[in-house]
Design goal:
Keywords: Disulfide bond, Extracellular matrix, Glycoprotein, Leucine-rich repeat, Repeat, Secreted, Signal. This protein has 316 residues and is largely without helices or strands. The chain contains four helices and eleven strands. Among the domains are: 92 residues, Leucine-rich repeat, LRR (right-handed beta-alpha superhelix) (Alpha-Beta Horseshoe), CATH 3.80.10.10; 109 residues.
Amino acid sequence: MQTFLNIFLGFFIFESVGSAPITDNIIFDSEFYDIPLGELPHLFVYDENEQSDQLKTETGIALPSRSQESFSSAPLSEEFEEEASTPKLIDSPSAQGSGVLGPQTQDGLPTCLLCTCLGTTVYCDDHELHAIPPLPKKTTYFYSRYNRIRKINRNDFANLNNLKRIDLTANFISEIHEDAFWRLPQLQELVLCDNRIRKLPELPSTLTFIDVSKNRLGHKGIRNEAFKDLHELQHLYITDNNLDHIPLPLPESLQALHLQNNNIQEMYEDTFCKMKDFTYVRRALEDIRLDGNPINLSRTPYAYMCLPRLPVGNLI
């Protein structure tokens, strides 16, 4: 009996607890507690029109109404269309201009349209050119090989202060103005091989590389001491020119001298060395080519005492 009473009492307590309402701890702001919703301040009521008007007042910018489209489909004015379009390529009419496609040539085409411009390098190879085209002022390397250029004028390279290399291989050049190159302050490499040149012009002292092979310089094409002041010259190639002498003096900086297939018949003991100074050593000049000349190198053995290597040529 006692057990039955305990079960009945426990069931009664469980039912009492389960029927009680569950309440959470909710914190209300006492300022608006027990106020009807309609009487709440407008701060809590969202009004789209009022928000739009407020934004207009704050920013001072009139917003488009709902009836207006967000993006106008009307055509742009001619002035706006011109500004929005891709910029046009305008070329300078001046021979020394700096238009997008380079200065205008005599053929009515900009240089960089007639030739190929990659950065500051201009390639005009094999274009049937009869003259040096006007070049952009920032040109650094210029190649115009396999054309029909016959003459280099005084101002063909004027004001090209960045020019470092000129390559005019395989043209018909027979005449070069005396001042064509020496006014170029940074010119380092000059390649004029396979032309018809009979006389070298004044050369700038900045040159490190000269190739005038396969021309017609002969006996008088290179003036006396032409290379004396070229203190940075390292490579000098004058092959196949019908030369009858070695152009002296040669700068101490020279590393390679190619004179093969000329008409050089004799050499002197002071051509490369110093006769009175047997301690003098010319270490830089390691490559001398004299093969193909009617000269017997064994006749002047003391001419090579200061060199690290013997010249290549006939020793018998």
